[in-house]
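[job 0412] stage=complex_fold ligand=3-methyl-2-oxobutanoic acid status=START
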Amino acid sequence: MPAPQREPGSMSRKSPAGASPAGRPPVGKESEPVTVPDFVAAKAQGRRLATLTAYDYTMARLLDAAGVDAILVGDSLGMVVQGHETALPVTLEEMIYHTRLVARGVQRALLISDLPFMSYQVSPQQALASAGRLVKEGGAHAVKVEGGLRCVPAIEAIAAADIPVMGHIGLTPQSVRRLGGFRVQRDEPKLIADAQAVEAAGAFAIVVECVPSATAEKITAAVKIPTIGIGAGPGCDGQILVSHDLLGLFDDFKPRFAKRYADLGREILKAVETYVREVRDGTFPDADHAFR
Ligand code: KIV
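[job 0412] stage=complex_fold status=DONE, emitting structure tokens
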């Protein structure tokens, strides 16, 4: 009997291999895409938002099928995909490219894409033009900018064009040179003022990165829009992690807050070592993986 053959493209777009949604998705309707209003309403409804990063089609399909509420194409791809020490070298063209890959894999999650370093700092006009490209050419549903008060003109310009925009306060990795490293941010009055400024400027949500849990709780109470924490404790309205950290795919740098839910790096090493051994000793390919 001939071995079963997989046709190119035969995996259903609706059911990635091995993935099954974990229970009822918490935001929006189960089978319908999560919209920005659904995302915002989750806060008042007391439903916690589970979000992750993705940078390509395969990962986006898996995360989407597992029921995440939003996928962020983060400029963290500079580190976990491109191998840079920081996100600073990532370009707008690269963000558009990765957003396009992810967009093809997303059916339900809200798709948010990062504006990379120097694609929005020059002027509100530059911010709007860059955001527009992520939506129009990349397929993003929303964009994210880093910074509090200083980002108000950019957020206002983007939001005024009906492009949903997310803020990002606390540790803003694009400020790594000024901050001197990836450090916990503790200036509570400034952080609260930043969050309120971002909300007043028209952002629909805010990432709060690397701040003490008690401060994140106060920030969350001080705004009506959802706060999405990373290294900000349990008091935020939702959480985000870099998927490579959660899955154990990235070892160069391991933030304390990044809980590892799987060790796929080790699984990949084991699988590839087995493949190398089998090719060398002639046990692969066997009859099941060859044609008669
Ligand atoms: O770039 C990124 O992945 C991010 C998240 C960690 C929030 O900004």
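Residues 53, 72, 74-76, 114, 207, 230, 240, 242 surround 3-methyl-2-oxobutanoic acid (CB under 6 Å).
[job 0412] exit 0
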